[in-house]
Amino acid sequence: MPKKGKAKNTINKAKHTRLMKQKENKLRLEKQRTKERLKAIIKKANEAKEQNED
Fold first, then answer.
1. Residue 8 φ/ψ, nearest 5 degrees
2. Is 52 a residue whose pLDDT tops 80?
3. What's the CA gap between 6 and 21, in Å, rounded?
4. Chain-centre distance of CA 19, in angstroms?
5. Chain center to CA of 9
6. 3-state secondary structure of 2
């Protein structure tokens, strides 16, 4: 027979899931920001290179 009352671990599991999603989102955003920064740096370097060639 199942136990009466609320399930044992549901609160901890919900917290863990939420925290893991936060962590994944944070890593995804950091990766995206890094890509954008690198693209901006490369674009700036290419523009400077073109100006120097002229």
1. -65, -50
2. yes
3. 24
4. 13
5. 27
6. coil
Structure tokens at 22: 């936060």
- The residue type found at 51 is Q
Side-chain-facing half-sphere of 42: CA atoms under 13 Å: 6
pTM equals 0.64
- Classify 5 as helix, strand or coil: coil
In this predicted structure, what is the pLDDT of residue 18?
Answer: 95
Q: What would the two tokens of residue 44 be?
A: 């700036």
Q: State both tokens at 45.
A: 């370097």
CA gap 3, 49 in Å, rounded: 72
Q: What would the pLDDT profile of 3-50 be if each residue is shown by its tens digit?
A: 677 777 788 898 999 999 999 999 999 999 999 999 999 999 999 999
